[in-house]
């Protein structure tokens, strides 16, 4: 059964989110050794998690093949995730879709390593639509048109894509932040993994690198039940309709958005992103 959103500071969330995000923001202590994956939903979060987890094990797949992804790098904004993070030894690995103004403020004075993954928002809409129509933890769109409207208004879990990306991009230039795009991973996964492992301070030898690359392909993650979301409890997702590892491509929006939707999206995009320098995104 789909439920309505939980609204916190004007932003819609799933009901699985911690209700008191202000306590999390003011009370959670980010440590310098932490490795944090951040993103707006459906941007390639789990791809980055898999990569960082495999870099951590130097390409040994036994961890990613035996522990579900949401326990390897738990979500800080859920009660279960937070509990797991608090039990982790250093270096801790965790994930969040929180917008910058709701994230624990201790991050901004720490040396924790943050990887922010971005994706063409047109593809984020399409991926989000297919995901949200199967979710039982939030209200479901009745059509793509409806979800498209919700997205443009920011009335989807974790709020406006434009505010999320624009907010976190204020951190660009800080040496403990790495901004990377889904499209970049697609274009050159080896160079991307090298960039991420350098950022994390882990030099991989060629065999270790090959093993990481082998286990982060779309097919490998789709076949790995610890990473493909098939083990998410039934109360959260309608598994008969759900394929988390759906298409895994860049540019799927061209198969879904009408000309009118593309034009409407472009108008909003130009207006909302006007303050950012050109050349920031591979899809522009
Ligand atoms: S979530 O629910 O917000 O955490 O989802 P997120 O992980 O951010 O994004 C899910 C989309 O990422 C695709 N994905 C991949 N694409 C290519 N290669 C690999 N290895 C990979 N892993 C995940 C996944 O298929 C979702 O995109 P769509 O377009 O729906 O297929």
TrEMBL record:
Belongs to the sulfotransferase 1 family. This is Sulfotransferase. InterPro entries: P-loop_NTPase, Sulfotransferase_dom. Keywords: Transferase. It comes from the Eukaryota. It is an enzyme of class 2 (transferase). It catalyses: 4-ethylphenol + 3'-phosphoadenylyl sulfate = 4-ethylphenyl sulfate + adenosine 3',5'-bisphosphate + H(+). Its EC number is 2.8.2.-. Residues 32-276 form the Sulfotransferase domain. It holds the Pfam family Sulfotransfer_1.
């Amino acid at each position: 059964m789909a439920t309505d959103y939980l609204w916190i500071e004007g932003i819609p969330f799933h009901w699985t989110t911690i209700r008191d995000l202000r306590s999390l923001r003011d009370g959670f202590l980010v440590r310098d050794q932490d490795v944090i994956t951040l993103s707006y939903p459906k941007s390639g979060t789990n791809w980055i998690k898999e990569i960082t987890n495999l870099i951590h094990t130097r390409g040994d797949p036994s961890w990613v093949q035996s522990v579900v992804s949401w326990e390897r790098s738990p979500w800080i904004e859920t009660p279960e995730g937070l509990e797991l993070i608090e039990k982790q030894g250093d270096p801790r690995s965790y994930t969040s879709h929180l917008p910058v103004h709701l994230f624990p403020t201790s991050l901004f004075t720490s040396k924790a390593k943050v990887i922010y993954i971005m994706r063409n928002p047109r593809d984020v809409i399409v991926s989000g639509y297919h995901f949200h129509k199967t979710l039982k933890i939030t209200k479901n769109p009745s059509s793509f048109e409806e979800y498209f409207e919700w997205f443009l208004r920011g009335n989807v879990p974790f709020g406006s894509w434009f505010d999320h990306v624009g907010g976190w991009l204020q951190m660009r230039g800080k040496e403990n932040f790495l901004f990377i795009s889904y499209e970049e991973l697609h274009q050159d996964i080896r160079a991307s993994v090298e960039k991420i492992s350098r950022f994390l301070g882990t030099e991989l030898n060629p065999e270790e690198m090959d093993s990481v690359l082998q286990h982060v392909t779309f097919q490998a993650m789709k076949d790995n039940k610890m990473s493909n979301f098939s083990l998410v409890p039934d109360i959260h997702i309608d598994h008969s309709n759900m394929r988390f590892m759906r298409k895994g491509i860049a540019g799927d929006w061209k198969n879904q958005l009408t000309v009118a939707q593309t034009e409407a999206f472009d108008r909003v995009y130009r207006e909302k992103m006007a303050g950012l320098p050109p050349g920031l995104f591979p899809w522009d």
